[in-house]
Design a protein that fits this description.
By secondary structure, the protein is α+β, with helices and mostly antiparallel strands. Helix content is 26%, strand content 27%. The protein has a six-stranded antiparallel sheet with strand order 2-3-4-5-1-6. Strand 3 (58-62) and strand 4 form a beta hairpin.
Length: 127
């Protein structure tokens, strides 16, 4: 389960040389993910360790009680994008205790607020 994608433009996030060797060719966002990890505490969230390269994005693992929660940060054709996703165990879902919708919505609100308030972020919109 994931949130809507937040699309935006910014020149504040440099591309690290060869960072896409850890993701897929043309997938950047390490500096954006590191910045997001540093901004999350201002909205009551805590990043868990370093950002993680995945084939589709650079992910910020976020502390959550009942599931694995992440902010995905990646390059886009005309800028950057970020979204929130979560996974929880099958047993939680089968037992009717699937917290994903709530935790994703709450973190998404924080991520959107971080982007709206940050200098150097422009053309923020939802895809």
């Amino acid at each position: 389960m994931h949130s809507p994608v937040l699309m935006f433009q910014s020149s504040r996030f440099e591309i690290v040389a060869n960072e896409d060797k850890l993701t897929n060719p043309g997938i950047y966002g390490r500096r954006l993910a590191e910045w997001m990890a540093n901004e999350l505490p201002t909205h009551g969230y805590r990043a868990l360790g370093d950002v993680i390269p995945e084939d589709f994005a650079w992910c910020v693992p976020v502390a959550a009680e009942d599931c694995e929660l992440y902010v995905a940060c990646t390059s886009a054709e005309e800028g950057w994008q970020a979204y929130v996703f979560a996974d929880c165990g099958l047993m939680e879902r089968l037992a009717g205790r699937d917290p994903r919708a709530t935790v994703v919505a709450e973190l998404y609100t924080a991520v959107r607020s971080i982007l709206e308030d940050a200098p150097g972020i422009s053309y923020l919109h939802i895809q």
